[in-house]
Design goal:
Helix content: over 70%
Number of helices: 9
Order of helices and strands: HHHHEHHEHHH
Shape: globular
Oligomer: single chain
Strand order of the largest sheet: 1-2
Structural class: mainly alpha
Radius of gyration: 18 Å
CATH architecture: Up-down Bundle
Number of strands: 2
CATH superfamily: CDP-alcohol phosphotransferase transmembrane (TM) domain
Mean pLDDT: 91
Length: about 230
């Protein structure tokens, strides 16, 4: 009985991630962007802890792996797409009439490329200590952070349209990106210098710019990863 309970705890957390993602989608489509963003944040927290708890309890399983990907597809694929779709739909009324009416639906390419990213992750054994391509939670947090800016405008409309292909590319590109998971190490500071630096930046950015700081943090995460790749090639 204890073994069953231990093995179920990570899956319950993953199910909570999925549940919050579903709520975020409904809220976003109905225009409640702020609350949708909060539920996605909860999903991200649960997504972090389900893996942590699974390792702590030694309760990793193939079921948990597949359930985690399905939950991530909803919370970090469809949910951010719904947020971007709503913003584009509203801001489109300020844009010239020649913009096709279907333009806001381009937001769902985020969901398509998130699915590709998650599928590649599941079959790629190289991504055990780091990532190849931008992780879906990072992409989602970036778009959630954008809600802190004035996106319901002509400028916001075109900025979002430009960011969609950029992040679709980042999700499936071969850029190595470091993991934020930290383990005990005798050379802790040197080994996790980038993670520690990004953590400090995140605290400062979010304290100063609040939601905007989240998007800025993810931008720095991408820049740090690019700089690390260039450094290794020199």
């Amino acid at each position: 009985m204890i073994r069953i309970i231990k093995s179920s705890i990570p899956n319950i957390l993953t199910a909570g991630n999925l549940f919050c993602g579903c709520i975020a989608i409904v809220l976003a489509i109905n225009g409640n962007i702020t609350d949708a963003t909060y539920f996605i944040f909860v999903s991200a927290i649960l997504d972090f802890f389900d893996g942590f708890v699974a390792r702590l309890l030694k309760a990793q399983s193939q079921l948990g792996l597949q359930l985690d990907s399905l939950a991530d597809m909803v919370s970090f694929g469809v949910a951010p797409s719904a947020i971007v779709f709503y913003i584009l739909s509203v801001s489109q009324i300020h844009v010239a009439a020649e913009i096709p009416v279907f333009t806001p639906f381009l937001a769902f390419f985020i969901a398509v490329f998130s699915a590709l990213r998650l599928a590649k992750f599941n079959i790629d054994e190289k991504q055990t200590s780091g990532f190849i391509g931008l992780p879906t939670p990072a992409s989602t947090l970036f778009f959630c952070g954008l809600t802190g800016f004035d996106m319901f405008s002509v400028t916001g409309f075109y900025v979002l349209l430009a960011l969609i292909p950029v992040f679709c590319f980042l999700l499936v590109c071969k850029l190595p990106m470091f993991s934020l998971k930290i383990k005990k190490s005798p050379d802790f500071v040197k080994k996790y210098s980038l993670q520690l630096l990004l953590s400090v930046c995140a605290i400062v950015f979010i304290a100063v710019w609040h939601l905007k700081g989240i998007s800025i943090t993810i931008a720095f995460y991408i820049l740090f990863s690019i700089a690390e790749k260039i450094k290794k090639q020199i």
